[in-house]
Amino acid sequence: MSTVDTMGFGTGLLSRAAALLHTLLIVEALLLATAAPGLVGLLFLGPDPANLPLAALCLLPLGPAVSAALYALHHRSRDLTDLHPARAYGRGWRLNALPALKLWAPLLAWLTVIVFTLTHFAATGLPGWWAVLLGVVGVACLLWGVHALVLTSLFTFRARDTARLAAYFLLRRGRATLGAASLLVLAGGLTALLTEALPALLAAPLLLSLLQSSRAVIVETQEDFIA
Question: Are 203 and 69 in contact (CB under 8 A)?
């Protein structure tokens, strides 16, 4: 037996850790590069609520970029001798860019309407509980969007079927939804307490955590909804 075989090169603990780190770094770099046009545009927008539609437009490239990253991380190799994260990311982007946009664009539009309404709520003349209701609807839509992105990244469904499945899993898999909510709170907290750039720089580890928390959703979809 050769020395390489004895050491288990490519399959040992250190090799798997190195493979994971390599994959995370490559996927992070590609995600930022793919979403860069929109993210750079956000830097030039002020906090004025009137800029919300422009901010939504700037965030459009983020949906396909996140979808491609989820695909690459899900299909990552744990063998240091067989790593192709850039190839997997490219394949994920080609397969999922349009399907992701079909869900991501309406979600952004609807969230923009909700946030714009809340920032101008005093002018609506509506009772205060409407603001609470809109906030709850906004959070539910955001969590639905997380499930929808995971599903459209890993499976080939029609957009309306993905939307229905995401809504189904929102309550069906409460632990997965709670995991997604925790990651969103973490990203929001990092943005509020430190800098808005930090969640972007940690996007790959956060998305890997999302895949782990969505394992039940992925397994049930494979077992019950794939012919």
Answer: yes
